[in-house]
Amino acid sequence: MLRRCCHRREPHRPIESQIGRATAGWALGIDYAGRVPPLDAVVVGSGPNGLAAAIVIAQTGRRVVVLEAEDTPGGGCRSAELTLPGFVHDVCSAVHPFALASPVFRSLPLHAYGLEWIEPTAMLAHPLDDGRVALIHRTVAATAAALERDARAYSNVIGGVVEAWPRIERQVLGPLGVPRHPIALARFGLQALQPAESFARRRFTTDGGRAMFAGIAAHSMLPLTMPPTAGIGLVLAAMAHVAGWSIPRGGAQSVTNALIAHLRALGGEVVTGRAVRSIDELPEARAVLCDLSPRPLLRIAGHRFPTRFRRALERYRYGMGVFKVDWALDGPVPWRNPECARSATVHLGGTLQEIAMSERASWKGHVAPNPFVLLVQPTLFDPSRAPAGRHVVWAYCHVPRGSTADMLPSIEQQIDRFAPGFRDRVLARSVMGPADLERHNANYVGGDIGAGATTLAQFFTRPTWRTYSTPVGGLYICSASTPPGVGVHGMCGYFAAHRALSEVLRD
Ligand SMILES: Cc1cc2nc3c(=O)[nH]c(=O)nc-3n(C[C@H](O)[C@H](O)[C@H](O)COP(=O)(O)OP(=O)(O)OC[C@H]3O[C@@H](n4cnc5c(N)ncnc54)[C@H](O)[C@@H]3O)c2cc1C
To answer: Does residue 79 sit in helix, strand or coil?
Structure first.
């Protein structure tokens, strides 16, 4: 237990002494004297995992509050006018297949709180220098048909994962456990545990098929010669068909707003502008769940951990950083091949070889001259996010962790390569390097948006073998630094909350 006293028998204490800051709209049952009963759980951080954890606890009728350091809630799932008034950009996440596939989000009535999904015509576009574009469509069959010589490979490889998904979902989107479908899992695992580069060369024969798979696997933020990059490529590609690479109307903030509205309806609350400096200053609660990666967790709770656990967290490995640019444009991106406008997501990196070189360079601490660029053009499908005829575009590339290199020219050069004249459309830019990302969210150490490298060693046992638990009774970790890792899905929060409910919140 974090606090030893039995809060149920304690008299109600003034709200200010519990959270150190009164908030409008407090919904925890203030009595006539302006006091609230003690809390069951405090969540530090309002990212999608923190909010999911709070919701799971509030669903049981327990009292929970989320404390968020920033003035706006949502962590990696926020939107803001980063460039010009009326242009709504996604600060971090933009495309949300995992939010749609997530068992916890699927179970919540988020549409009742205004969340509306937009499915682009195609899930992904990957242009090549010869003018062709490899597209992922919503169905495996349509995608395979367009891949010509790779049609059968795509149906077998990606179609196989899609077909097996209902049997492997629990293992892929959760911590290690006894599999209910060991044969399906073993079949998936044998492919998933391979490096993407050799896997793509073996399974696909066309430039388009190989490059497309390499681009998807590069979301792993690992060199494509490392396992389990094939697994990350397989799962993300399968998500295009299982769930869709969709965008929320109004931007990522709509996901957060719906989660918060639901949490409030359950009696929970979110307090923003409340950076937690030490767990010792938290209001009394039986459980504290930290939506934090190891480095910021050590800052607020390191003094309470035994040396061994502290060292294990200190050894946790962060991965590459990210350099991100948002543009306000006076028109759509002028793609050489208009097929690129069929998808919100466009991967710009040319061939498998080129993408593999870019990722390897960043991992090894070098700045790639032609970085692999991930681009999202949401206003083609959601015009509400910019003034009439105008557009927002979001893109990033991977860089060495903590890099201070200015990647703006290289990123714009990559876009111009497939969309000549792009720069002429720019009205304004917002640029965020690794240090800016970390300043806005302590979890992204050195700009690592994955809250830790997804190496094999850190895949199943993030951030330590304890996953959600810590040696301090009642203190849990619920961030993307726990399984199943990066992405807007809330599953880390879901599992951490269930751990707390089965331990310190049992009665
Ligand atoms: C540039 C970028 C692009 C991305 N693109 C996508 C995408 O397209 N699709 C996708 O699914 N995912 C994407 N992601 C990843 C996704 O955003 C994260 O995996 C996800 O947000 C992790 O959620 P979380 O709840 O674990 O933590 P976070 O979202 O990181 O939230 C943690 C919260 O804790 C708060 N906090 C930190 N320290 C304290 C403290 N001491 N006191 C109080 N609060 C604190 C932070 O301010 C933050 O709000 C992207 C991330 C970035 C940065």
So the answer is: strand
- How far is ligand 1, taken at its centre, from the CA of residue 76, in Å? 3
Q: In what order do the strands lie in the sheet with 64-67?
A: 269-271, 64-67, 39-44, 285-290, 475-477
- Closest ligand 1 atom, CA of 485? 19
Q: What is the pLDDT of residues 171-211, one digit of tens each?
A: 999 998 888 999 999 999 999 999 999 999 999 999 999 99
pLDDT, residue 21, reads 41
Distance of CA 138 to the CA centre of its chain: 21
Whether the model pTM is above 0.90: yes
Strand partners, 290: 44, 477
Q: 144-163 pLDDT, tens per residue?
A: 999 999 999 999 999 999 99
State the closest ligand 1 atom to the C-alpha of 437, by its place in the atom list counted from 1. Answer: 53
- Give the residue, out of 77, 89, 124, with the most ligand 1 atoms within 8 A of its beta carbon, to mutate for a pocket test: 77
Extract the tokens encoding 138: 């919503």
26 pLDDT more than 50: no
Angle between helices 196-203 and 207-217 (to 10 degrees): 150
Distance CA 152, CA 148 (A): 9
- How far, in Å, is the centroid of ligand 1 from the Cα of 50? 10
